[in-house]
Amino acid sequence: MTQIESNVTEKKQKLIFDIPMWPQEKIERFRETLLSWYDLEKRELPWRKNNDPYRIWVSEIMLQQTRVDTVIPYYLNFMKTFPTIKGLADANEDVLLKAWEGLGYYSRVRNMQTAAQQIMENYDGKMPVDPKEIIKLKGIGPYTAGAIASMAFGLPEPAVDGNVMRVLSRLFEIDADIAKPGNRKIFEGIMRELIDPYKPGDFNQAFMDLGSSICTPKNYHPESSPIKEFNQSYLKGTWDKFPVKSKKKKAKPVYYVGAIIKNSTGAFLLEKRPMQGLLANMWTFPLIEEELVIQETGIAIGTLTQLKDEELTEKVMKNVMLELGSKYGIRPTLMEAPFEEVQHIFSHLKWFVAVYYGQIRVEEPINIPENCYWVEPSDFDQYVFPGPQTKMWQSYLSKFKK
DNA sequence: CATGCGTGGAT
DNA sequence: TATCCAAGCAT
What we know:
CATH topology of the largest domain: Endonuclease III, domain 1
CATH architecture of the largest domain: Orthogonal Bundle
Organism: Carnobacterium alterfunditum
Low-confidence stretches: 1-8
Helix content: 40-55%
Strand content: 5-15%
InterPro entries: A/G_AdeGlyc_MutY, DNA_glycosylase, HhH-GPD_domain, HhH_base_excis_C, HhH_motif, MIG/MutY, MutY_C, NUDIX_hydrolase-like_dom_sf
CATH superfamily of the largest domain: Hypothetical protein, domain 2
Radius of gyration: 27 Å
Strand order of the largest sheet: 6-3-10-9
Order of helices and strands: HEEHHHHHHHHHHHHEEEEEEHEEEH
Cofactor: [4Fe-4S] cluster
Structural class: alpha+beta
Family: Belongs to the Nth/MutY family.
Number of domains: 2
Distance between the termini: 89 Å
Protein name: Adenine DNA glycosylase
């Protein structure tokens, strides 16, 4: 190769998945600018007190799809209750789930315990340093592995989350749909070029702080960004086009009758949900799914309960009684029909729960299933309740305890 | 790769 | 009220 050809090669712009990468000099200026801003503006957060991998790991799991303000009190309580990886590995599952109650996405904490047990068995009780090992742990994917590797161990690993994709898509005018899982590797490739090799943890966190404070999804004002001079979409006035993000599907409606049944000693019937799936292993009042009423035209007009017709309500109560008898082995007297409709929106489902109230007569034989208990309200705090259950109970209290 | 998996806050 | 989210991962 001649000297001339060599120069041509050097000047040719490097492409990362068709995205033109900056020259080295600009990359270094960018790192300096971003890290200087971070040093001044970074938030003081409980998990930023030191670089302990366990503390960082717990925070990253909690922060998945969850806001910082929501996480902080849970984090402080969790670290107090389970201060070490061994403590987490050995924890009682109900105690563990109780520490997560209200935080959502409960498989996160079960997976984290499984990972803690993996660490105890395979890694001498210490978080592995190699990102290829970290990502083998249950509940740790590409983002969390990169976050732990860079923040706890100072390795130059990208940690691409929603913030990073949003910031990068605006910086480089990337129109790849950030909702598509396959596009994450585009942003990973760019981060591998940009990341500061001396302060990779700060660099990744700077992206996230920037994304949550200035480079936000809404009310975005690029002119106030510390890195505006690097921002291609700002310089070209196209920032409102980025990021490209396809819309989520709407939550599908599901209809239930929630049966709040009290026995002669003042205890209520609770059912433990299956160990897999939605709200796994959590407790609710019995829930009986209602079918939609379909007209001959094929159009759903609602559930029987929602039609608020006396004759139909009676029909529902008969169905509920039938179900309570066959599935729960009880034959209560239903007192209210229903007294309120509770709604709860999940990511993918919208529950409509028509709440019914009933009592068991003293002399009745009781033969409830194995996953059901009679529990007094004073003991409710020992059971892990999901949102819909809390709402049903609040609905009951507001109706009968005023 | 699309879908399942929670919750509370902002607009 | 309806919609969109907020530091994703397992399957």
